[in-house]
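2 proteins. here.
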Amino acid sequence: MAIFGWDGVGVSTLSWDWLDVFGTLYTLAEDGDVSKITLRCWFAGGAKNAACAIYDDALNLVEHSDIVNVGVGEAWVDFPCTVHLDAADYYLMFQPCAGGGDMRSRYTDLGFTSGRYRDAWNILGDWDPTLTNMAAATKRHSIYATYTPSGGGVTVKKGSCVPAMTALLTKFSALKQPREPRFQPQTFPKFTPRSLI
């Protein structure tokens, strides 16, 4: 199992308007089968429902999670979501139920690509197929997806390609041996022509 997104707890608290949908663009470095989305969240005034979804980098809906009842204590909450994803960039999005304006979540401003989408209807679980005119932001939300790699190869974490290639080149350099020349140079005695009689 592996994750993409951010499993750190942001230093700032986001207070939602119940018509808002929030999310951050994260990179999935390999093909994988997602099983759930996990969000750091809670409700301040009593348990209510919420849901998450995955959108591609063009803000088209890929898949949404089940609706989950979220309690009043701050915690990591799992939202079941089953979908196969190819390696690419995806928005991990989340929203509360109608009237859930007392929902809270965690984030940190670190220059990430994120957004806030205003859902005029907010029918929980009825996600818009495209998030048109989403307002850009830079928040790194505390949200991630758990997946099982399905590419059959080695799992490579983002940013680790250069060290891995360096180690590989070092290994092959150690194995490389100087090769003997195919033809060895030979020395012949100097030829002196005989005098003609």
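next one coming up
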Amino acid sequence: MRYILPCVEQLDLAASLLNEKTNIKSRLALILIDNIVELIVHTKCVSIIRWDNNFKRTLGEKYTQKDKNEVLGKGFDPKFKFLFKAGVISEKQRDFALLVHPFRNEAYHLGIIHDDIIFELSCEYFRMACTLFESLRPNTYSLPRIEQLTETAKRHLLSSGDTKANFITKFDFCEISNSLVKMLPIQSSSLGMALSNSATRRAKDIKEMIHYLCGGFNKLTYDEVIYQLQYDHELYKDQPDGAYQLSNQEEINKYMSKRKFLNDHWKPKITGNTLERWERRATEIGHIKDSTVALNKFISLTNDFQQFERNTHDAVMQMDMAINIEIDRMRGK
């Protein structure tokens, strides 16, 4: 009961939140789903390791104590890697969970960064959670009595006409899983398309910000702005406050030495062609049917441009601030 009811009730709540189709409730749903996924896989890990401990004298010990300690600890990744190695989950299930889990951490700690994909991502994760609930059911489990069931649990655990006598014999993880999945709202787009739209928007935003910066930066061209953004990042990235404190000769020498090194040896990784490739890669994600592959491509792409995206955004903010200061100066403020 301590396993079945939390899974059913929490997944029911997650589906109810997803039916609201709001960013906030989709974030909450993702957190709930991830929590249940971890409960399901942890319970299965405990079951496998307990079996290994009980029969190690006759069958031999299959897993080392180090492996067992790692799997039974608080880490998320080791549990999925262990179950894949044990042959009880697929490679795609392992990979998808490991890709989604950081989004859960982000949703919990940082909030709104990926709101434009959070609904579709949560729906896909929900389906996987229901599949794991069915396929990773424990070897032994206790069933609640009918009178212990909440109204939420009854919707999924009971069929019309069930009685105390036949409830146990009719109990079916597959039917419960299907009942939960039926709660999901209709999606207007696939996860792959949502990821594609998000990445495409961000790639285009970077290009628009660069065009905006062409009006500042001493009237540099589009390609010169791209170069300057990277140059400045390389020049200042190791400084605690993002700037050199040129108050003594030692700091001045360090600054001049870094500039000389960049001028003599450094070449930018990003050009105007790179930005065009980012946009093409973003579009291609929308044609990928496999959610794990699509999510992996999305993460790879956004990892490639997120530092430059951040640098560009910061430069826009600085230019806006300089413009406002100049406007206030001209107004005599």
